[in-house]
Structure formats: C-alpha cells, structure tokens
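Could you help me review a protein record that somebody else here produced? This is what I was given.
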Amino acid sequence: MKTRLASLCWKITAILVACGVIYALLPSRPNTTAQQAVARTRLALRQQGFKTDLADFDFSISPELQAREVILKATAPDRNSLPFTDPLNLMETAGNNSVIVVWKQDSLKRQSPSWPDNSDKLAWDEFRQIINQNQSQIDAACAAIRSGPIQFNLDASGGNHILLPHLAVMKNLTLLLNDRTMLALHDGNLDIAWTNLMAATRLVTAWKPEPAEVSQRVRFNDTKLVFDAIWQGLQTNGWTDEQLTRLQREWESADFFTNLPEIAAFKRASDVKESDYEQQGLRSHPPFDEFLHQVLRYPFSIWSNLHYRWRQDAYLRHGRSDDENALLLFYRDRELELRTAIQTPTWAQMRRLPGVTNAPSFRSKYPSRMQMMMNTREISRAIQSRGASLLGRAAETEARRRLIITAIALERYRGKNGSYPQTLAELAPEFLKTVPLDFMDGQPLRYRLTDGGHFMLYSVGLDCVDNGGKIQPHTGDQDFVRPLRPGMPLPESDLVWPVPATVADVQAVRQQEARAKELKNERQLEDESENEWNRSSLRQARVDKILATKWSPDAGRVSYQGRLVSDVIRNENVFGTNRPSLAELLTPKQVITGNEPEDLTFEFPVSYDAVTNMGFLLLLDADLDPGSLFAPDSGAKMQDRNRAPNGDCLLVWHTIFDPPRQHALQVEWTLTDTNGGEYWGKGPAMPVVTSNLCQFSLASAHFDPETGATFQARLPEQNGRYVIELNTTNGALLKTITGSTSNGVIKVHWDLIDDHGQRFTNDFFNSVFHITLPDSGRTQTLKGP
C-alpha cells in the first residue's frame, strides 16, 4: 500500500514538473484587444487636451531661476543643518481671540523645556547668537528671493518617485526668515525686519510649485507660517504706507487654485508609467535553469509556483490593460472635478461638489502589486495630510490671504486717518477695490473694533459657522485640545486675525503655565520619592546578608597594569614603605566632623590624587546582587569626595537622603587604564547606623527658579510636626513654614516669596528642619537639603 501511495505521489509530482517546464517555456501573451482599448483612450484624452505621459511635463527652468535655486539651497539645505532652535510659536493665545506679541516680551518661550535646567525660556541674546550665523549668506538669499520668480529644476520622468529635496529648503528658509524678523523687531531694526518679512512673503507668493500634492501642501503650510509672522510684524506702527502697499500688492498677486488640476494630470501620467513598469516585471519569466533548480529542490512547491504564475499571466492578459484604461479615466474625472471646483467663488459652494472634501481613491477589480502600492500611498498621504483634503487646505490658505490683505489695508487706513475705520466698507476704493469677502461663505469678512484701539478680523473657517472670532489654539498652548478628526479645525473656532494680548493677559498666561508646571513637578516628585523609598526598603532587606558576607583575601591580589591595586592606590604619605592589604585600605573609618547626623565622613588611607586621576571611590549602601534590577541604585544616595590634609580620600555621606536605620556600608573602587580597560572591586562591609528622623527625596535638593522649591520627606512614624527655617547662605532668615502630617510624609512647597513679600532670586539657600514625633516623643533638628 505504501509503495503504491509513494508511486502515485511521484507521478503527480512528475506531471506538475512537466506542466511547469512547459509553462515556463511559454511566453506570456497580453490581450491585444485590451491594449487597443487603452490606446484609443489615450488618443481621445490627448485630443481633449489631457496629458497622459510624463514626457508631457517639463520641469526644467531657466539659468536665471537655476542661479536663484543654488542660492536658496546653499542658505537652507534640504537637511536641517541650520543652528538648532525650536520654531517660535507666533500665535500663542492669551484668550479666545488675543495673541501674545512675541517680540515685545523680555524672553522667548521654547516649545519644550531644555536641558539642563528644564527651563522653557530662551534669552534674546542666546536666540540672537543662534539666528545671526551666516548673515551674509542669508542676506544674499533675501535679495535673490525678492529678485524674481522661484522654481526648482526637477526631472519629471521620475513620476511618483520624483525627488523633491527643495521642500525642506522652503520650510527651513521660511522659519529662518520669520525668526530673523522677530529678532529685528525686538531690536528695533525695522528695515531689517521688513527685508526678512518681504522675503518670507515671496517664498509663498513667488514660488510656483511643481504639480505634486505634497508640494502644494508645503506651500499652504508656509503661508500659515508667514501669516503668523505678518501679524507679529504689523503690531508695530513703524511701517510706511509704501512698505505696506508693496506687501499688500504681493499678497494680491498670489494664486492658490489655478494649478491644482495639474496635480491630477501629473498623477495620471505617473501611475500609468508605474503600471508599465509592473507589466515589464510580469512579462519577465525567471531563467529556465533557475526554475528547474527550484522545482528539483522543492518539488512539492510546484503547485503554488504555478498558481502564482497563472494569476500573474491572467492579470497581464486582462487586468493590467483594464486597470490602465480605468486609471486614465479615473484621473480624467478627478482633473475635471478640480477644474470645476476652483471655479466656484466660495468654499460653501465648493464643498458640495464631488471629490472636494473626500477625494476618491482608485480601486481595481483585480488584485495586483500596483493596487497594493496605491493603497500604501493612499494611507501615507492620509497620514501626512492629517485628514484634510487638498481643496480644504487651499480654501483655508485663500481665506488667510484675504485676511492678510484686509489687515494691511486697515493699517494703511489707520496710518492716514489716525484710527481704524468703523466698517470695512470705508476701505474701498482707496485701500481696497471692493469690500473684502470671506472665501468661506461669501459674506464680508467679520470685523469689529476692540478696546485699546485695536480690531479683530476673522473668517468663519471651513465649517462656515460664525463662532464670534474664537481663535484655534496652537498645539503648544495650554488650552489646546486635539480635534477628533486630525487636521480639521477645532469645534467652535474661526480663522482669526487676533487682537494683541495686554500685559495683564500675558501675566495671567504665564502664571497659569507656572501653576501647571508646578503641579506636574509635584506629581513627578511624588512618584520619584515613592520609588526612592521603595528601593530603600529593598536595600534595607539586604543589610544582614551583606554584613554576614566575608571579604575574600584573594581579591586583594588584583593587578592594575602589572602592579597590585593596593600598591597603586595606597597613600605613601601615611604608609611610607609599608604595604597594607587592599582590605585594610578599603575598610571605612568614620571621622567625627561635627556635621553629624546629617553628614557622615569616612576616611580611607588611599591616595586621593591617584584615585581621582585613574578612577574613583564610591560608597555603597547595602549593595544589591550583581545584575539585580536595582543594582545601579546601590550607591549611598548623596555623597561627596574630598581630599584630606594628609592626602587621604574622604567620602562624605549625606544621610538625610537615606532611611534612618542600620546600613551595611562598603566602598567600591574603579580604575581605568590608558587603553580604556576598567578594573573594579569592593571592600569589606561595616555596620553604620544613621539617626536622622526623616528621609528626604533627592529632588528636594534642587529648586526651580520659576515655580519654587518642594520638600518631600518620609518620617518613621505616621504623626509628625515640623517647623522649617529657610535661610540665605549667610544665615539670614528668609521664610518660616510650620505644619504637621498624619500620613508619615512631609510635603511642603515654597513659592520663593520670603516673609517680607520679596522674591528670592539667588541660586542657593539653606534649610533647617525642627521635627517632633508626638507618638514616641522624639525630636530632632536637622540641616535639610
């Protein structure tokens, strides 16, 4: 029976191999009828004026434009090699419709706190040092930008794989020019500010992007960046009418819609080219010897290989041509939709048209690599666009353009008449040809005068709902809430040309930020303190085991570059020619200094100079097992290394950061040789009892000059009373704080305001804690962190 079954299997395999060999030798034959249908569709589209091939696109530019391109790329490369600084938030809100004038502030605000002081402040001098590098190069770029149109020399034959390194250049340069504008405004250099602001403007208005969706989106995003910079720039009354007029004319010339249909045309040619590449791949059979080798090595895989080839050939004969024909018609329809959409006068009308808010995706009737690739690109594009359609972004950009033009006209009106007009109708025809309309709903832009001689101007935004000029918070603002649909405007928000925040508004924002930071620090301190105290308990459980461990004399024979470690580190001033063992050198010997119980000092007869030059000594408090999760935390929490008068090494243990009880204290030595090799070992353990009545968290040793100081400590009993004296380093009393606890934890925050109402501004202060434990009657006065 087994013989018959084996024979049958081999016969089936032989038949499959024979079929595979015959099939591998047969060439794939595409469906000529389907190909003829594609050719007819191409011809019809071309006769109707549609581009179908990448050869129809020419992205080459003139020598003049190429020279301008070289200057821009040299100033702001495609990679972020510029001096690093966070992009400034030029629309930091201070209310529903007011924004902080950045360049009028005493310092700048980072988007994220910086190391090492965890501060989000950036001094103007530091910012100036960062921004003013390569000034001559940037000045040359400004001149080039203002001299004519901006385009980039590209190879259209790349299709979907066209390289667009200049997009990063445009964004980097826009941010840099915005930063230079703010710095010049802060320094009172209006001419420099104007040059950079006009250059940033022309990066938007003079740039003609190639017909790629990502390029248009970068231009829209840059418009938002420049919109913010112009708002900041118009918060000064120093511009002349000529300067304002030139800026207004520049924005009046900008067009964000005309070239959008060309995106669909280029996409059509690119995807058709991609389809041709796939066809070439499907037609190419693997070499016969490779096919035969695969079959002989894996005979039972012949069926899956044949099935895969049959599916490929079936798609090549029928599906590929059908897909190409469908692609041509799909992008024709998309291009026609875009052509129709850009003719509408308002977003309210445009968004009702097909393919505007939700652009359709191409779907093939056949499974293929081409469809998989298009699906992947669709997902990637959706992530990059954050859910907002191309036309939606264009509509927002057009609304911002009209806000800029109107705001400039209002400034020109104020410059001539001394105040802003009561209505926008007063701007026409001298400053504007007609009353400015909101692109979103076709109604006049919303405008009203505000207190302090300012005005608010806004568009209703993509939802076409008037929310009274409520500004959409920036992602770095305190009141920012992420929208449910990524990229879409927040509920109840408009596109706003806001009111400048008052000094009181700015102070309120900073106080709110300081309080939020304080609460965050408190939560972090609580978590860190709890973790520290838990680790202390784990170490405490190791004390008896450490003390019972006998130090091995063999460890004293460790060599360092051919010499015994004991000979290398011993202090010759103390021992002379005597040669003590390593155990003798590393046995802690407490020295009474008068700073007990807060500080315990231990002297080791090793050379401070030798140890410092070649390595270090470290006090260990109940060292955990090697490789344990908490092994790196085994050192005594806070310690210093000093030099004794006789050259010995002194290790000072600040015990208030460790629990008050018995400890197993030992010292670890580490030496590094000239080749980077590391040698280390530990000395014998000795019992040490600390008598401080509380254990402070490590974070209590530091304070934030903005939010204040927080003290956190754990007591050995639940109930406790305390009096805290805060003094200057000269001993003068700053503040007295009294309190009690019933949970065994002291938690006190000092806002750096002393008893006289003055704010403490120095870098250091001292603390003294008077602690009473009523249940046991114990009391103690400790020098705190």
The mean pLDDT is 82. The chain is about 40% helix and 15% strand. The radius of gyration is 38 Å.
